[in-house]
Amino acid sequence: MSFLTENQNLLVRNERLDGLYAKPNGEKEVNFALKNARYLFNKLRLINYPCLLNESLNKVQFKKPPVYLVDKWQLAIQGVWAEIIVTPAIDRNRIDAFIEELKACQLPKNYFNEETLNRLAVQIIEALEKNDRARAAIMLRHLATSSSEFSEAYLLRIANALETDNWDAVADDFIKHNFIGRNDYILIVGPFRRNKEGQGDIKLTAIFGRIDSIPLPIEDLEVAAREAFGQLLQPLAPTFAIESIAACGNIGEQEAFLPPDCWCLSKSDRGPALVNMTAHQERLKHWTQKRIRRIFEPETANLILQLLDDKSMQFQEYWLHEAGHAAGMGLKLKIEHDLFPTFTQSGWEEYKTDIAGFYLAAKVLTPEQVGRLVAATFCIRFGIDAHRLGGPEKDHDVFSCVLLLDRLLLSGQFQLLENNQLRLLDVSYEGLYKATIPHRLEAEALIQQELAAVDNPSKIMEFYSWQQPHPFIKMLLDRLIERCR
Ligand SMILES: [Zn+2]
């Protein structure tokens, strides 16, 4: 919206206004315009906005507002003043809309304005969903002056990035967590890569939500990881649990984990990882329940599914998984040396990561808590990952499930029933703790071997690639899952 219509500009409008005097009914229209000029002037005074009225010219002058309002309403500027010559075309609806926007940018800097924040942020996401970058940029500038939740400079940098498609200035905001507002709302906009069937697909992506401050069983994971693994060759990315309010682009309901390096912003791997708990719980509710009930007999399934209500352990599980990737020589070094040529290798990495998490947890938590963590892992691995298309030969997550299952049977704590369901012998979290003894022993050995091979990373091929699970286990997992299809 602006005060000008079609090809009008102020000059043209002045001429037209002059022209009105010549018309027989000109007097009436001029009165109408004068009344509205007074209306605008009074409205400005009501919000204590510095202003002047020139009745003979139907002209209202007022303190120059922020540039984005000047642009949007195409205001004429004279020094520190902006002016509007009120023509008959400018009606009260338009004046009211303008005053609303002007009011918004007068707000004190500590003005939270939660309702406006939610409304505008959702509209920004909606505009981006339609790839209407120009509108999103306008709304961002509007948000910058309507709520003090996010720093004004941060929002303006996003708006600029949208217009220029240059994201350099926003990269630092991601690393420094500037996307987190004063009251824990978050807003991130940027290109985001999703790995789909081995292909990277980059899309302009945005998420608005809120940090979910969940207390965790392991308070200082970095310290715990350093102690458990001996050393930590790559730092742990800070990880935040978030509730998503609106999202678009490559953030869907399918993936709950948003790794920092998937944001295509410079040095984004130094930024935080996000766990979209809204998507995660949606996924668990939708898939996990019935699948776990089919794979495990009822008592065992009930024990595992209690974890669906434990957000804290669910989030801990995610974060521990990241610590598991850092264990040994660390995922980054392995990627640098191209050590995942096939799904088998990356499947091994996923498995090693899960069991390193169990191993770490057992160092600092009670057996009961470790059992709960294992149940949370089962919810994801057997409830979601094991069912991915492609199977163990084409999907590393399915492959890691095969390894997980193989060692569970090795523990002697699980029994395969005649109806092809798994039964935990000691149906308790301590029972699950015992069932993962082989995993934890294996984790300890693998981490040591990896650390010893740091100077020659390709050496890990020797102690990983030949360790294929027995073909029977692949068949068994297939059979367990088939029941769910
Ligand atoms: Zn992983």
How does this model look, in words?
The protein is α+β, with helices and mostly antiparallel strands. The protein folds into three domains: 95 residues, Aspartate Aminotransferase, domain 1, CATH 3.90.1150; 139 residues, Fructose-1,6-Bisphosphatase, Chain A, domain 1 (2-Layer Sandwich), CATH 3.30.540; 207 residues, no CATH class. Helix content is 53%, strand content 13%. It has a five-stranded mixed sheet. Strands 1-2-4-3 form a four-stranded antiparallel sheet. A two-stranded antiparallel ribbon has the order 10-11. β10 and β11 form a beta hairpin. The longest helix has 22 residues. It is elongated. The two termini are 53 Å apart. About 4% of the residues have low confidence. The site of zinc ion (ZN) has 4 residues, from α12 and α14.
The number of distinct β-strands equals 11
Bound small molecules, by name, code or SMILES, are: zinc ion
β-strand amount: 5-15%
How would a textbook summarize the main sheet? 5 strands, mixed
Strand order of the largest sheet: 5-6-7-9-8
Helix content: 40-55%
Number of helices: 21
CA-based gyration radius: 30 Å
Mean pLDDT: 88
How would you sum up this structure in a few lines?
The protein has about 475 residues and is of the alpha+beta class. The protein has helices at about 10-20, 25-45, 65-70, 90-105, 115-130, 135-145, 150-165, 170-175, 220-230, 275-295, 300-305, 310-325, 330-335, 345-365, 365-380, 390-395, 395-410, 430-435, 435-450, 460-465, 470-480, and strands at about 50-55, 60-65, 75-80, 80-85, 185-195, 200-210, 240-250, 255-260, 275, 415, 420-425. It is about 55% helix and about 15% strand.
